[in-house]
Write a structure and sequence with these properties.
about 725 residues; 4 domains; five-stranded mixed beta sheet; four-stranded mixed beta sheet; 23 helices; 18 strands; about 60% helix; about 10% strand; flat
């Protein structure tokens, strides 16, 4: 369970995605380039300074030695120095300065070239990002022309995008490292030339560690970029069946593949959840972690006992059609790689200092893939319609349409049955497939027309609504179709899956046992989390006091200033110009007295307020002397803590929650009945920073929700 809260100075503005993208791709490199250009100027100035010293110091050294020989008691003051030296000592100082200049000039010359690496890195990062964006946009437009164009353009982007993202990360990392190296290297010259630059270099040392850390983290992120070439396996809950375990099913699948000139699957998985699908790529079985490669057909067990032979043939034929003709290349070369790229980019743009320099690449990658969304949606619909047509060739259009409606009608029954079993695994039966069939009304399904706008499930692809798919098959949506799709189950429906799988009952029990074991493990972890969350607040009251100390000190200082001004008026009236103006003296005296008394009264008021708790937090309620009633945590829908001149706690209550009233005419609490909000203003929370204050409120709210959830399941802590 997650409690959401917001803490900040105001509502702020949400920038459009394109603005944020350009800020990372263009803005950040531009700022770094500007800093690099400034460093180029500073680096050359440093070199010029040492070059000038190497020319001037030998001349000054000869002159000082001559002066020391002719006038030993002469006094010499170097330019910019506060101390004067004797001629002999001044000559020694000049000799030291000359030796230092000869030593430091090569270092200064080498340091002057470092900013050029910053400029190169920023240009590389900016160009790589812009080329990726522009190229992906052009490829996305090209991909809309045909499915072959989609495959070709995506193949080009798939090969080029990781390289461009890698160059972008390398460029930013090079720029940050160069900036850090230049600024940190300047510490060697501190005290040898301008004091202003010395201060800047000391400031650079403070951020050097963070900058190097970010650059190292970005370079490590390159592994994630080039991992984009390898799509991640798709996790599937189910059991892979070989031909010995499911001879009838494999015979049917091979026959349907042969009739469509389609490639047969390399693996057939039967599971408990989800819908029918095929994919070509790596599949990982969630039960034991086994990874299957090649072509995979997945069949949901609850549907096998609901569809008749022709309907099941239409469904399997539809799926196998994706392994026929041009669709095979699409399934192999596009779908799994496209899904893998999206998952890898999500991991690339993580949070943290080490991911700051990889985040621009993640933004560019997501934007680049997003240019294919329209083409993917278009050609996905085309391939689904084509697969429906080819599937109907082996069974007929009416069974294909009936199968779509019957699967749509069964979806809510499967979801409700499995959801109930997941919520109470100990009360569920040992065969959840039989439980689904038993949950189907004896008179058949309700009106199938209610499911015409539903879409079939798929882990990596999208399907058009069933209404459009049936229309594309040329089947009228009449009463005959709806009646057939909603027909009740017969005895043959429960028995004929045994002709497909040798031990159908055993398979259903195994799938059910795996599902229930996962439900128990999830509930155990959830219960442990809820118990920890519920126990995170003490049973006794927690008192939160207003932090009035800063305001009291401010009023004290203000009273002293007023008093000092009054003393000046009394002691030095002539200097103030009111020595002969009795009325002015009276007015100023009144203002001073009013200021002192007002500041003292307000400081006293704040002090008295701080003696009573601002909030009283208990595991069940939040109370405040500013409100005439308690607010139950169960009635709080959300909250936020904002801060600026004051710290404000806003509680958003549920629609049916009772609203308290603010006490007093000038109360620091407010209640909005229209917005159903309770607002408590304060100068601050004593001993709590705003984020800690928000975390405290969030902890109590989370604990209350955790206890409520545990109580609904009959559990206590």
């Amino acid at each position: 369970m997650i409690t959401r809260f917001w803490m900040g100075r105001g509502n702020g503005l949400r920038l459009p995605p394109i603005v944020l993208l350009l800020a990372w791709v263009v803005g950040a490199p531009t700022l770094l380039a500007g800093l690099g250009a400034w460093e180029v100027e500073r680096g050359h100035e440093t070199v010029a300074t040492y070059t000038r010293r190497l020319v001037e110091l030998p001349v000054s050294l000869v002159q000082l030695r001559l002066l020391a020989a002719t006038d030993p008691f002469a006094s010499v003051r170097f330019e910019g120095a506060r101390t004067a030296y004797g001629a002999a000592l001044a000559a020694d100082k000049a000799q030291e300065a000359l030796a230092g200049a000869e030593r430091d000039r090569p270092l200064a010359s080498a340091r002057a070239w470092i900013p050029y690496a910053t400029l190169v890195g920023t240009m590389l990062a900016m160009l790589a990002g812009l080329v990726a964006l522009v190229g992906a946009a052009a490829a996305g437009l090209w991909a809309r022309r045909s499915r072959d164009a989609l495959l070709a353009s995506f193949g080009l982007v798939h090969r080029a995008l990781p390289v461009l993202l890698g160059l972008q990360i390398i460029g930013l990392s090079l720029a940050v490292l160069s900036v850090t190296l230049f600024e940190a290297g300047g510490l060697w010259f501190v005290g040898r030339f301008s004091a202003g630059e010395a201060k800047l270099l000391f400031g650079a040392l403070i951020i050097a560690v963070l900058a190097v850390w970010a650059a190292i983290g970005a370079v490590r992120g390159l592994r994630g970029v080039f991992a984009l070439f390898t799509p991640e396996p798709i996790d599937v809950n189910g059991q892979a069946l070989n031909e010995r375990e499911a001879p009838g099913l494999w015979r049917l699948v091979r026959e349907l593949a042969g009739r469509q000139d389609a490639l047969p699957p390399d693996a057939v998985i039967v599971g408990l959840t989800g819908g029918f699908f095929v994919m070509e790529g790596a599949v990982r079985l969630a039960l034991d972690g086994t990874i299957l490669t090649g072509r995979t057909l997945y069949l949901p067990a609850p549907y096998l006992g609901v569809l008749d032979g022709r309907e099941l043939s239409a469904v399997i034929g539809h799926e196998l059609a994706h392994f026929a003709g041009e669709d095979t290349a699409y399934s192999r070369r596009f779908t799994p790689i496209y899904a893998g790229l999206q998952r890898a980019l999500a991991a690339l743009g993580g949070s943290g200092v080490g991911n700051i320099l990889t985040r621009p690449a993640a933004y560019v990658g997501h934007r680049s893939l997003g240019t294919f969304d329209a083409a993917v949606a278009r050609w996905s619909r085309v391939r689904e319609f084509e697969a429906d047509r080819r599937g109907a060739l082996v069974s007929g259009t009416v069974p294909a349409a009936s199968a779509l409606l019957r699967v749509g009608c069964l979806g809510p029954v499967v979801g409700k049955t499995l959801g109930s079993a997941f919520a109470a695994p100990d009360a569920a039966g040992s065969d959840l497939v039989a439980g689904v069939l038993n949950a189907i009304p004896a008179v058949g399904f309700p009106d199938p027309a209610a499911h015409l706008d539903e879409r079939q499930e798929h882990p990596t692809d999208t399907h058009p609504p069933d209404r459009q798919r049936i229309a594309a098959l040329g089947v009228p949506l009449d009463d005959a179709l709806f009646t057939h799709a909603a027909r009740p189950l017969g005895a043959e429906n429960r028995t004929w899956p045994s002709a497909l799988v040798a031990d159908w009952a055993g398979l259903c029990r195994n799938l059910s046992a795996d599902f229930l074991a996962g439900a128990r493990a999830y509930r155990a972890s959830e219960r442990a989390y809820l118990e920890v969350t519920a126990a995170a607040v003490p049973t006794e009251e927690t008192l939160v006091y207003e932090n009035g100390a800063p305001m009291i000190w401010t009023m004290g200082v203000l009273a002293v200033l007023f008093a000092a001004a009054g003393a000046a008026f009394v002691l030095y009236p002539r200097a103030v110009g009111i020595a002969h103006d009795a009325l002015a003296q009276q007015i100023l005296t009144a203002v001073v007295v009013a200021g002192v008394i007002g500041a003292a009264l307000y400081a006293t008021l704040v002090h008295r307020r701080g003696r009573s708790p601002l909030l009283v937090l208990t595991p069940e309620t939040l109370r405040s002397p500013l409100l005439d009633g308690a607010v139950a945590w169960r009635d709080v829908a959300d909250f936020q803590v904002s801060y600026g001149k004051r710290v404000t706690l806003t509680l958003a209550l549920t629609p049916d929650a009772p609203l308290p009233r603010a006490t007093g005419l000038l109360s620091r609490a407010g209640v909005s009945r229209r917005r159903r909000q309770v607002i408590v203003h304060a100068l601050g929370a004593r001993g709590l920073k705003p984020d800690i204050y928000a975390a405290l409120i969030g902890r109590y709210l989370s604990a209350a929700r955790a206890r409520a959830h545990l109580s609904t399941t009959g559990e206590t802590i």
